[in-house]
Amino acid sequence: MSSNFEFLKSIADISEETFKQLQSISEFKKIPSGTQLVKQQEVPSKIYMLISGAIRCYISTENGKEFNKTFYTPISFVGSLTALLKKKPSSLAFETLTECKLYELDYYELMELCEKNPKLKALYTKILELLFVKYEKRLIESISLNATDRYLKLRKQNPNIDAVISQYHIASYLGITPVQLSRIRKKI
Questions:
Q1: CB distance 76 to 50 below 8 Å
Q2: Which of 64, 89, 126, 171 could hold 178 in an S-S bridge, CB 3.0 to 4.6 Å?
Q3: Does domain 3-143 bear CATH number 2.60.120.10?
Q4: Burial grade of 164 (CB within 10 A; 0-12, 13-18, 19 or more)
Q5: What ranges do the domains of the chain cover?
Q6: How far, in Å, CA of 56 to CA of 70, rounded?
Q7: Are 111 and 121 in contact (CB under 8 A)?
Q8: What does the pLDDT look like over 49-72, one tens digit per residue?
Q9: In sequence order, which residues have a C-beta less than 8 Å from that of residue 137 and are 6 or more positions away?
């Protein structure tokens, strides 16, 4: 079976049949850099499994200032979960920073399959748990670490982050200016 099957099986015990059900509602796509997968204030219906490339999740203020919330690198699950659950416009935007290869799934079709397949529902639950742990960890780091330590942690998690994501976006993610990031880079 495929490496995608093996990856999902490492999260939860799914069968080949369950994987084939997932494949039947997913579409493989190559998305160019700079594409908005979800626009801010758009009601989304899709979720994604990122296989290659980088995606950012950000919020844009009324005056046009952008704040990066999350970077997604392979293999990641991407989507505006709150907007999907509430069937409301997304407060966040999701944009490809590089060319991306991903699988796109209709969230509501996935939920229908989860209702029929307990193994798939268990996989979905495990993925949500992993995402919750990741976001909780990010929240704690943003409160407890200084900018240099946050940057070092980001580089440890994504060793080639500087080659893939622009300094402007990294600085926004860290909550600092590009000038401050440049100073941190010079120090280390």
A1: yes
A2: 171
A3: yes
A4: middle
A5: 3-143, 145-188
A6: 6
A7: no
A8: 999 999 999 999 989 889 999 999
A9: none
